[in-house]
Design a protein that fits this description.
It is a single chain. The chain is α/β, with parallel strands linked by helices and 374 residues long. The chain folds into two domains: 192 residues, Glycogen Phosphorylase B (Rossmann fold, 3-Layer(aba) Sandwich); 166 residues, Glycogen Phosphorylase B (Rossmann fold). 43% of the residues lie in helices and 17% in strands. It has a seven-stranded parallel β-sheet, with helices on both faces. Helix 8 links the parallel strand 11 and strand 12. Helix 1 crosses helix 14 and helix 6 packs across helix 9. The radius of gyration is 21 Å and the shape is globular. The chain starts with a strand and ends with a helix.
């Protein structure tokens, strides 16, 4: 088969981008695959990349331009099946749904955070544009299947766009267990903490991601501030000055450690004790799957993905979107190291079913079935 794959970017630095990279490497081992993207940082024997030039910022104009160029480029490739990530293409045979703009806008007004009024105005305008593009993609008569990464995303797309249940296949995201894994022992954990210049014996809480307002970093800061001898390690890019001020107001400026982005995020998972992620909206966060593979009990709201990954009080806790709720569960684990270890073993066991080999094989089977009917 010849498969087309449309995504704005394909690399291993983000969430959706990394999910695309993992699946594409495996697809291209079996089928000729043409990637249409502004950036593609993976290589495979049967993979070719058609660069779709476009400025990456501002995103609203980038996506409009990207979709326009792809609409001209894709038909000339004569692919048997073309896949697209979210609303990256005006039309495709298969959409991999890693987000639902309509649901996010309905719940949060399209706001991702930021204190400046002009930024809020831009975000609201951009979300309206994204929703219209999303609607056009999902209501395209060409669309044959939607791969939703969680049951929650499936429900959202059915609700907002009236898509029938039989149009969907729910195939979650995955994790590389050879990269994300627990420390071999307590001494190895201490040595790695020393290399990362992190406190050796502190109760270490981990937060990973960007878009800090949406992902609830302020709640995590206020919760950790109330736990004696706890530190919060923040991996990802955001407004460090503003969130540093939040930490100072909470009296925890010395216990909130901003590490920025990292070429080896797996090291921070390895040395942590618990994953704190009071996010407002996700499709199925890769960060939660990586935390699970590292054996970190997860504290997160009952949202898309976590409702399937977390078994409350067994391998993590469901929390409300407020600091008090996060603190209550965090305190339970801080006070009971034995329970923390039990939950760590449980979440590690849960993570074993989320492998990229399995996820890619399921997507490949679906694409082959569509191509076979073509």
């Amino acid at each position: 088969m010849k498969i087309g794959y449309i995504a704005q970017q394909v690399h291993r630095h983000g969430g959706m981008e990394r999910a695309s990279a993992e699946v594409l490497e495996r697809l291209a081992n079996k089928h000729e695959t043409v990637v249409m993207a502004t950036k593609c940082e993976i290589r495979a024997a049967q993979l070719s990349w058609i660069q779709v030039p476009s400025l990456l910022r501002p995103e609203m104009f980038h996506l409009w331009n990207f979709r326009r160029k792809v609409r001209r480029t894709e038909p000339a490739q004569h692919c048997e099946v073309t896949m697209a990530v979210n609303n990256a293409a005006t039309e495709a045979d298969v959409i991999v749904a890693q987000f639902c703009h309509a649901a996010f806008t309905d719940r949060f007004g399209g706001l991702r955070g930021g204190a400046k009024r002009w930024r809020r105005g831009y975000q609201q305008l951009a979300q309206r544009v994204f929703m219209e593009q999303e609607r056009a993609s999902y209501l395209s008569p060409r669309l044959r299947k939607v791969i939703a990464v969680s049951e929650g995303v499936k429900r959202e797309l059915m609700q907002y766009y009236g898509l029938p249940a039989e149009r969907f296949a729910v195939i979650p995201n995955g994790v590389d267990h050879t990269v994300f894994k627990p420390a071999a022992n307590a001494e190895a954990k201490r040595r790695l903490r020393a290399e990362l210049q992190l406190p050796l014996d502190a109760f270490s809480c981990l937060f990973v991601g960007g878009d800090w307002d949406r992902k609830g970093l302020a709640d995590a800061i206020h919760a950790v501030a109330r736990v004696p001898d706890a530190v919060l390690v923040v991996v990802g890019r955001g407004d460090e000055a503003r969130f540093g001020a939040i930490a100072a107001q909470a009296g925890a400026q010395d216990r909130i450690i901003f590490c920025g982005t990292s070429a080896r995020p797996q090291d921070y998972y390895t040395v942590a004790d618990v994953f704190v992620f009071p996010t407002r909206y996700e499709a199925f966060s890769l960060a939660t799957l990586e935390a699970a593979a590292a054996g970190l009990p997860i504290l997160a709201p009952r949202i898309n993905g976590t409702e399937e990954l977390i078994e409350d009080s067994v391998n993590g806790f469901f929390v409300e979107m407020n600091p008090a709720s996060v603190y209550d569960k965090l305190r339970l684990l801080w006070e009971a190291p034995a329970r923390l270890q039990e939950m760590s073993a449980a979440i590690l066991q849960t993570s074993k079913r989320y492998t990229w080999d399995r996820i890619a094989a399921e997507q490949m089977q679906l694409v082959e079935s569509i191509g076979g009917r073509g």
